[in-house]
Design goal:
single chain; alpha/beta; 8 helices
């Protein structure tokens, strides 16, 4: 029972939390006692279903908040809503992301603004908006980066650039916000295949490059979030690859 209350009294804002990895993170934090603000942009129905699920387990412990993260003026209001609803903010998880190919020769300004906006600009301005609340609670920021922020993914230069920037943002914020706020990053490998599907041959190549010879799961990322949140009070400025060893064997 004690382990289930490790995050009792804490409040987390998880961006892009309606589905996939974000939903797994929200469930894991909630299971450990945290109240959870489930952010979404367009996946409102899925977010509401998740909030209903969590509130059935513990009354008034989850809320849905909507915002376009590419609209920086809207972000302070997102943080304010969390604090008004739950009284504090102790953890910000920048999970929301856009991902699609942008082969050189076809990159558009709209694609650049979208990929950089969601994967890099939004975490910066949301973190900036959250700093006063996080300093008051001596809280933490977790950025979901990507192993391709360290090694570029073919045909995805803009996405790779954005995630590389997010890695540096993580390290910069760790230095800027210490000692009150810890900032770390998680770099997933193949934990969920793209929603649009993936060529079987490419999937086989990825698994062949992964020493553990299998994909991961959202639960692997969620467990790592719990580690940084509950079990690593002396860790900041670090990027942990959760990729089955793929980044070692590349």
């Amino acid at each position: 029972m004690e382990s289930k209350a490790r995050l009792s009294g804490q409040t987390a804002l998880v961006t892009g939390a309606a589905r996939r990895v974000g939903a797994g993170i929200a469930r894991a934090l909630h299971a450990e006692g945290a109240s959870v603000a489930i952010h979404c942009h367009r996946s409102i129905e899925a977010a509401q279903q998740l909030a209903l699920e969590l509130n059935r387990l513990r009354t008034d412990s989850a809320v849905v908040l909507t915002a376009d993260l590419c609209d920086p003026p809207a972000l302070p209001g997102l943080v304010q809503q969390v604090c008004e609803r739950f009284g504090a903010l102790t953890l910000l998880v920048n999970n929301a992301s856009t991902f699609y190919p942008t082969p050189i020769g076809s990159v558009t300004v709209t694609q650049w603004q979208d990929l950089i906006g969601t994967n890099l600009q939004a975490p910066l301005f949301l973190a900036q908006a959250a700093v006063p609340a996080l300093k008051a609670s001596r809280g933490a920021i977790l950025n979901i980066v990507d192993i391709h922020g360290l090694r570029p993914l073919r045909a995805h230069p803009v996405y790779s650039i954005a995630k590389a920037g997010l890695i540096m943002l993580t390290r910069s914020l760790a230095r800027e916000l210490a000692p009150e706020v810890r900032v770390n990053g998680i770099a997933p490998g193949a934990v969920l295949w793209p929603e649009g599907g993936i060529d079987p041959e490419r999937k086989a190549r990825i698994l062949e490059q992964t020493p553990l010879q299998r994909p991961g799961s959202p639960a692997d990322i969620a467990r790592t979030v719990l580690f940084f949140t509950a079990d690593a009070p002396f860790v900041t400025g670090q990027i942990l690859a959760v990729d089955g060893g793929r980044s070692v064997g590349w």
